[in-house]
Fold this sequence. Notes:
Blueprint: H1 8-15, E1 20-27, E2 34-42, E3 45-54, H2 62-82, H3 87-90, E4 104-105, E5 111-116, E6 121-122, H4 130-146, H5 165-178, H6 188-195, H7 198-209, E7 216-218, E8 227-230, E9 236-239, E10 246-248, H8 250-261, H9 279-293, H10 299-303, H11 305-326, H12 338-355, H13 357-367
Antiparallel strand pairs: 1-2, 2-3, 3-5, 4-5, 6-8, 7-10, 8-9
Helix pairs in contact: 4-8, 4-9, 5-7, 5-11, 8-11, 9-13, 11-12
Amino acid sequence: MENLPFDIDYICREFSIPGRFTGYKTKSDGIINKTYVISFDNCGKEEKYTLQNINTYVFKNPYELMKNISAVTSHIHNAIIQKGLDPQRRVLSFLAASDGNCCCKDENANFWRLYHYIDGVYTLNTIDKPSVFEACGRAFGEFQNLLSDFDGQSLYETIENFHNTKIRLEQLKDALKTDAVGKAKDIQAEIEFIISRESDCKKLAELTDAGLLPIRVTHNDTKLNNVLFDNETDEGICIIDLDTVMPGLSLYDFGDSVRFGANKVIEDEPDTSKVGIDLNLYESYTKGYLSSCADKLNDLEKDLLPFSVKVLALELGIRFLTDYLNGDLYFKITHPMHNLERCRNQLALSRDIEINMDKMKEITQKYI
C-alpha cells in the first residue's frame, strides 16, 4: 500500500500478523514515539494492534529497552494469571519479531514494536474527582505489588541516574560554575533555597547505598495518562508507556505521581501563590496505592512516602533550573522565562509540602 507512514508488508512479515490489513489511525497523545493503531480482518473478525516507531534519539539501545519491557510484562502476565484475572486486558502483550526480539529494525534503521490493542478502556489527562486519583494510585500500587518479587537490579538502566536527586544537584552546581548564558546572577533566591536542602537531595541515595531502601522495578513516568481505565468499572486495569521501566526506588514512582497529580495547579503556573499540595488528593492517592502494595513495602519505604513527594518536586525544580542555566536545551519552552517559572513552581510546591508534612504523615499512617 502507498502513502502509509510505515511499510505494512514488512510489519506483517516481521510479526507474522494473520489476516488482511484494513487501515490505521494515528495516535497523537504520545510525545516520544510515533504510535499507530493498525486493524486487520482475520476471517471476519476485526483484530487491532498498537504499532510504535521507537524514538532512538531518546532511547539509544532499543534492544535493551525491549528486553526490560519484555521481562517485566512477562512477569506481570504470569502473576495476573495466578490471581485468576485476564492478562489480555491487564498487561501489554508484545509480539515477537522474526529474530525473537520484541522489536525489529527496517531498512531505514527505524525500530518497530507491536502489541495487542486493549479495547474497552480510556485514558485521562486531568483529575476531575478524588476517586480518579485513588484508582490511579491503586493501579500503580498494583504494578509495584505484581513486581515485588522481581529482581529490579536485573534490568538495564535505560536513562542513567534518571531520579538520582543527589546527582541532579551536582549537575546544577556544574551549570552554575559554567554559567553558559550568563543567567546565574538572577537566580540567587532559588539557589539558596535548593542548597539549604542539600541533605534532602542526598537522603534517598544515601539510604539506598546503606542498603536500607531496596532496589525495585520502577515505572518512572507515573502520570495519570499512563493508566488504562476500564469503560464499565472505571478501574485502572493496565499500566502503559513502559519505556522508562528500570531499576529504582518505589519512592520515585509514588513521589512523582503525587507531585504531578496533587499540585493545586499545573507545573507551568507562574503564580507561585497558587501552588500547593492538595491534601484531599494526597489522601486519595495514598489510600489507593497502599491498598494494593502496603504489605510489599518495608517500614522505611512507607514512612518516607510524604518525603518522597517533597524530594521529587525539589528534584524537578533542580532540573528546570539547570536547563535554564544551560540555555534551555532539554525541556521545550514557550518563552525565555519558562524553565525558571517551572522551577519556582516546583520549589514552591516543595515548600508547601514541608509546611504540611505532619498532616501528610498522619494521612499516610491511616492507610499503612
